[in-house]
Amino acid sequence: MRDLLRRKPLLSNVASYGSLYVGAEFSQQTVIRAWDEECKDEPYDWKLMGRYAVYSMALAGPGLFYWFRWLDRKLPGKTFGTALKKVCADQLVSSTGCTTVFYVSMSVLEQKEDKFAELREKFWPTYKVSCCFWPPIQWLNFLFVPPQMRVITVGVASFVWCNILCIFKRTVQV
To answer: What residue spans define the domains of the chain?
Structure first.
């Protein structure tokens, strides 16, 4: 794995991130089937998982790869102060951008008439939860994780985060 990360860092990070992201939607659908008798026999929504794959592998994964690279160049090191600056920048820039791109890209892929309706309705509730979820994870990420492993680390955390997004997407109605 380390050799692949060194030889093809973008590809390996994006593939890992995308697999974890799509896996989160798969797990979400599995849990819904287990808990809701009415959904028990419904087929998996592979088109929805495909949309999550497009978002995670074409947009979020590469975006995070280049974002962390840029952030590490602008704020090198792993000191307490540097990690704090990276966490603040990540929450203000990356989390805001990823949340925006998530809702708009999903609306585009779902061919919704108003591509920004879901963003207007769900951005602030989602962002507030992200302010509780991501800073502690990114704090650990920036202090202890080698730069080439950061997107994968975020991918593991995104497995949980994507389940949260799936809940927002399913429960907050536009």
So the answer is: 2-171
